[in-house]
Amino acid sequence: MNRLRIALIVLLAMGLAVPACAAEEGSVRLGAQAGYGGTVLYTRDMPIIVSLENQGADFSGTVSVDVYASEMDFDRYEIPIQLAAGAAKRMVLPVTPGYRQEEFRVELRDAAGNAVASTVARTTRGVGQNALLVGTLSSRQQQLAYWGEESEDIWNAQGNILPWVCVSLDAQNFPAEARLLDAFQILVLDGFDARTLTDAQQQTLRGWLLDGGICVVSGGAQAALGYPFFEEYTGVAPGALSEKTGVLEALLAFAQAGENEEDASEPASAWPSVVSSVSEQQKAIAGQQQLPAGWGKVPEGETAPEDAAQADALMVNELPGAQAEGNLLFCPAEDGLVVLTSYELGARAVANAAEMPGLWRKLLRAGAEEAYTAAETSAQGVWESNQYGWNEALSSLPVENAHRGWPLAALLALYLLLAGIVLYLVLKRMDKREWMWLGVPVLAVLAALGVLKTGEHLGFDRPMAATGLEIVYQADGEADANLYTVLSSPETGEFTVASEPGVRLLPYGDDSAYYYYSEGNEEIAPTRLRYRYILSETPAVAYPGGSSWSARHLRMEDGRAGWGQLEGSAWMEEDGLHMEITNRTPGELRDVIVYSDLGFAHVPSIAQGETANLLLRRADGQEEEQIADWLRGLEESSVYDGSLTEDLAAYEGVLLPASVQAGGFQSDAILSAALGGALQASPQPRDPGQVDLSAALGGALQGQNPQNRQWELACTRAYRTVGQSFDVYGAPFAVRVLCRVEGVDWPQLSLNGQEIARASRLCVAAAELTYAPIGPDGYAYYPAGEVNARLLDMEEAFDPENPRFAPESQDAAGYYELPYEPAFLFDLGARVEPQRLYVAAQGYYDVLPIASLYNFASGEWDVFELPDIDLAGAAAAPYVSAQGYICVRYAQAEEAEDWLSSGTGSVNKPALVFEGRVAE
């Protein structure tokens, strides 16, 4: 018997000592690298590259890395692994550092959570959030360092410092995930064959390029390597080689020309050559090239700088099919751009030239301004500003339960009946009424147990989720979507939320939503775990424990969904503003609001695939007088109130005579009235699981159903996402749509492996209709902001046939001192016979400027008594040129001896309202 016991004990000990998936200590070798060769990107996605080599038995576990998010918080990124005996593996963990961190500790744990191995990935350089990233791929990385060197040209279009930073890439660390490559704005391929990348890397590169990336590809002796991968976008193959020095001469001359807008609009003869015409094959593949006038040949008669004359000759290849030899070729690739160079970007003569820093900023601004501006915007990043607005909206979104709660109501009614009338009558009949004190508590205990048992089946204690989807439909056919979710659960411990493949989960909290990095930050070691990101085929994130039913916030990037398109256009005719909306979204459009600073209209619904036609009709005489009174009251009030909104709500579908001076007040009131009008038109009551319009903005309609509050807030957020252009004086005119979309394919969420069934959803869509100032029948209407004022250069003799724009600014912005007598030009783009011409500008310092219009018939500036000019019919005709130009100039009413210190006044850029018909 004792022997049997001993044998059983030994067998049991052996079973406990040999786990199924264990590894001997030190049997798995672990290595890690942070970022790109030690370069760490803060506030952007970057890789932690991990290498594993298993020298022991089969192993299963996790690899994790802690990443600093703030001074106090850190995030943990985990990825599960399975590693066979003798196997080696390389994996990439995409992480987003938010605070200074010079070492990233990577740990390997077994299935039981025990640490098996660890290592430290050290950094060499940190790149902050305000920088344009240039990824360089070349065998001569050092030669391309000039792409990231600072120069005098480090300012972006908005006037902010935006340095370029070079990050060296190669075939090993080139991102295979789109979220990693999206951190870069420009890729430079100098003698690098992109066909050597893996299939996944090539697919990511193509997607990045077509989605707005810029690829600069070298030629010369390296063209045979760089050109072939991009030939499907450029139609260009490597050609013959020749030795030339004129290429470098042109580059240096351009680099030394200095940067100003005059150079950008009127290229000097010394600018580098660009192929200005391409073959039919190239046109079919890449599209017609839109290049600045004057680019097409290498400058003649120029003398090379002394250092350039002694430099190595550059290998220049002839671009086949082109009608002229060139140095650069700009080829659009959907939303992206491929720039081919005829010379080697890493050639010693180019790399050693002191003028190279800043050169490519000038080249891209001159040859591809739109693509470069988009790259600058991407480099600066967009802070997530809508998440908190959605928190408020979703917190009031009702969650419909599968059961209405009638079993609990019936149980409560039964308890009241038994504990009241029945128990009293029974005890009275038994003459035992003194037992009442015992019977009532017993029935209460039984009722409580019944409530607990019933509640388990009704599911009132199950997790809840309220999700809002915001879709912004772009005019180019693209759709940007953001999902916001508020989660709540009775659990107090850590819980894990998971979704479907293709959905990225991005939790956020009230105190750490924004990443922050500064080189001046002192490196510290945060101690509070914020979130655990579980990187697997099914994305998941673990929240730390908290109080029962506390709210957790989650944003989702859904890469798997197709949102369709909301198409529309608007134009003016004699009877008013016409609008057309076509629903190509996944479902029905509900409560469609179309609004602008000219009025609003409401459509209850537009079925999928249908087109709705709307009209803002011209007001009659009485309506115009009433609206004019309303506008005067609006201009006199600093903040619009509910009465103004209620008055405006009566004019749904009416074209308002927009006042330029009204600014943002009028547009806000119009949106408020549009929301309120749609609310009143919606059928009531609605199912509790549905949502409807709520009180209008600004509290104009109080006392409405609080369940509708979230729709108002969601509309407000979507309105701000599209852009509150009305709130900026003289900003571009727009006709916008707000609506609700039914039938969207929502991503599924689960909590701790259980589907969140108690869910409520709200989808808000926003779009901007394409406005045509000239309608199909030739009727023209330019509302305020449709044509931007351009600042004229009046230092030289004014030529009305060929006006010169001021060197420092083409499009006017801000305020201009009156003593300088600023002049502006409006370009209608066509000869239009005017019916009405209205020009207005805001002034400051209580000084009214004197306004003058250029008379193209007399060649003189005609002075008007008031700064606001309003002309009709024949009186306006002399002030519109055959090219469609309108010129206005402002001056101070009285001269001051010391105007610099006296504050004699300034004027904002003027705004134009023009109405007429295109001349035959």
From TrEMBL:
<keyword id="KW-1133">Transmembrane helix</keyword>
<feature type="transmembrane region" description="Helical">
    <location>
        <begin position="434"/>
        <end position="452"/>
    </location>
</feature>
<keyword id="KW-0732">Signal</keyword>
<feature type="transmembrane region" description="Helical">
    <location>
        <begin position="405"/>
        <end position="427"/>
    </location>
</feature>
<dbReference type="InterPro" id="IPR029062">
    <property type="entry name" value="Class_I_gatase-like"/>
</dbReference>
<feature type="signal peptide">
    <location>
        <begin position="1"/>
        <end position="22"/>
    </location>
</feature>
<keyword id="KW-0812">Transmembrane</keyword>
<protein>
    <submittedName>
        <fullName>Uncharacterized protein</fullName>
    </submittedName>
</protein>
<keyword id="KW-0472">Membrane</keyword>
